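Worked example 3 (structure in, sequence out).
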């Protein structure tokens, strides 16, 4: 059986939610990732949808994961960023977490992207039958005071 890292995440004690951290407090030390990729695209996504995942920091505000999110937030002029703070078992455990976050992800296949884009197109531009159905559903909801 593999070794298990014991990392404890801390949330805002008042709300139990991830904390908003002043970006100026975050220290970026030596990172595994050298190529930041398309920060502009990530920034555009964050501007549109907000920050979907918090950055991960140590209690000393050293960045563990989320460097691209941090740089995108800076490019947008944000002064704070959503973060969780962790207590770990030393530098090796934190490096392992950084590596794992960047390795344990799967890109969508070309077929999955095509399917998602086709579904989005249908939602944004429904055909005549879909528009009629949506109008009928909306009318019944209004008639019977049904909320979504």
């Amino acid at each position: 059986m593999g070794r298990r890292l014991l990392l404890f995440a801390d949330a805002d004690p008042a709300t139990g939610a991830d904390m908003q951290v002043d970006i100026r407090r975050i220290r970026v030390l030596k990172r595994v990732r050298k190529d930041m990729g398309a920060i502009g695209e990530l920034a555009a996504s964050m501007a549109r949808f907000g920050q979907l995942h918090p950055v991960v920091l140590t209690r000393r505000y050293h960045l563990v994961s989320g460097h691209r999110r941090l740089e995108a937030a800076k490019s947008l002029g944000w002064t704070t960023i959503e973060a969780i703070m962790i207590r770990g078992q030393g530098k090796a455990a934190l490096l392992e977490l950084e590596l794992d976050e960047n390795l344990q992800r799967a890109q969508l296949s070309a077929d999955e992207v095509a399917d998602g884009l086709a579904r989005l197109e249908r939602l944004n531009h429904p055909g005549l039958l879909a528009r009629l159905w949506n109008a009928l559903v909306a009318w019944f909801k209004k008639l019977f005071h049904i909320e979504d």
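Notes: The mean pLDDT is 86. Residues 108-148 form one domain.
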